[in-house]
Amino acid sequence: MVYYPGTSSWSWRVPNLIQGFGPVIICLGTWFVPQSPRWLVKNGREEEAHKVLADYHANGDMNDELVQFEMREIKAAVEIEKVGDQSSWLSFFKTPGNRRRFLVIILLGTVTQWAGNGIISYFLIPVLKTVGITSSTQQTGINCGLSIRSWWCTILGASLVEWTGRRTLFLVSIGGMLACFVIMLGLSGGYAATKHTSTGLAMVPVIFLFNAFYVIAMTPIPMLYVPEITPLSLRAKAASLLLLSQNCAQSFNQFANPVALAAIGWKYYAVYVGAQIIYTLFCIFVRETRGLTTEEAAVVYESDETREAALDAAYRQERPESPSGELKEAKEQVTRRA
Predict the structure, then answer these.
(1) Contact residues for 145 (Cβ-Cβ < 8 A; gap 6+)
(2) Is a pLDDT exceeding 50 seen at residue 99?
(3) Residue ranges per domain, the chain?
(4) CB 300 within 8 A of CB 180
(5) 316: exposed, middle or buried (C-beta count within 10 Å: 0-12, 13-18, 19+)?
(6) Which candidate in 5, 62, 140, 207 could, as Cys together with 54 as Cys, close a disulfide (CB 3.0–4.6 Å)?
(7) CATH topology of domain 95-284
(8) To the nearest 10°, the Cα dihedral for 297, 302, 306, 310?
(9) What is the DSSP track for 184-235?
(10) CA 53, CA 68: separation in Å to the nearest integer?
């Protein structure tokens, strides 16, 4: 968030100009980002894919064992998908594994918008006014501090995801938000009954804490997790589906939340407490992908037979002498996360 105090037209121009730097940097940076090795293999550019993997995973050594294994996995996955012809939107409904993925993507998109973050954003300024913070400069300063702290928590979440795992971080996030909303429900009810300024003031740190729990998982993980669990041919469609579900849920926030808050006030928090309980149960059944390669993670939602066939193809292609112990270990690792 950017804020420029003053009454001239520069009070809105400066924030917009500063926020424009980010997209400019991203646009320039895309010219230095390599193509996806999986996309290159799918389009017959295997040598380029091999070089990308070698450059980023083995300091340029194209004969490295890890790079060789990754190339076999990618080529096997691409060949399997060619046989299955999973390239249309209807493919999400053709197999049990894809139907599971479709459900997970839709639920994940709604979780990121219906976990209470929309109502917190709407209710922040009224809460600040109840504790005597009425200056727009002060309110914007608090909002700015909240945004900066959210940025750091997002970086923390992205740094922890390979250590804690996706499911664990989801559960910590949802559990923390649920606890915060229960506290906020109590504080809001207490303030409505007593009008004590101290009760309203106590809401501010709880809102900050809620936001920290939200961004630590809901900001960095969804766009990481969805491509991981999706086959290459459906990966772009899966990302689009996630964004569509997020935008639909966000539209609900924009139109329904103000009406509900105006009608029942703080009692509306109870709706999100119930939703967060449901989301907690959902996250318990999310399948872990930590420590898996992209090809291994893409089959965690498949049936046991499909997972074994995919791993067999990846380990046997162009390497029939692959040790059975190596294959067995990979199968067990994927099965544990399923």
Answers:
(1) none
(2) yes
(3) 95-284
(4) no
(5) middle
(6) 62
(7) Growth Hormone; Chain: A; (1.20.1250)
(8) -10
(9) HHHHHHHHHHH--HHHHHHHHHHHHHHHHHHHHHHTTSHHHHHHHTS-GGGH
(10) 9
The residue type at 147: S
pLDDT in tens, 244-297: 999 999 888 888 888 888 888 888 889 999 999 999 999 898 999 988 888 788
> Could you tell me the CA-to-CA distances from 308 to 84, 96, 312, 329, 332 in Å, in that order?
16, 15, 6, 12, 10
Structure tokens at 120: 């917190």
Instruction: State the amino acid at position 38 in one-letter form.
Output: R
Other CB atoms within 10 Å distance of the CB of residue 129: 12
How confident is the prediction for the chain on average, in pLDDT? 82
Residue owning tokens 């009008």: 195
Give the model confidence (pLDDT) of 120-163 as tens digits.
776 677 666 755 667 777 777 778 888 888 889 999 999 999 89
Match 């409904």 to its residue by tokens.
Answer: 93
145: which 2 tokens?
């501090």
Give the up-direction half-sphere exposure of residue 90: CA atoms within 13 A in the CB hemisphere: 2
| Contact in structure between 226 and 111 (CB atoms under 8 Å) | no
At residue 321 the predicted structure's pLDDT band, cuts being 50, 70 and 90, is: very low
Q: What's the rounded Cα separation, in Å, for the pair 225 and 294?
A: 10
Q: What is the pTM of this model?
A: 0.80
Counted residue by residue, the chain has a size of: 338
Whether 292 and 162 have beta carbons less than 8 Å apart is answered as no
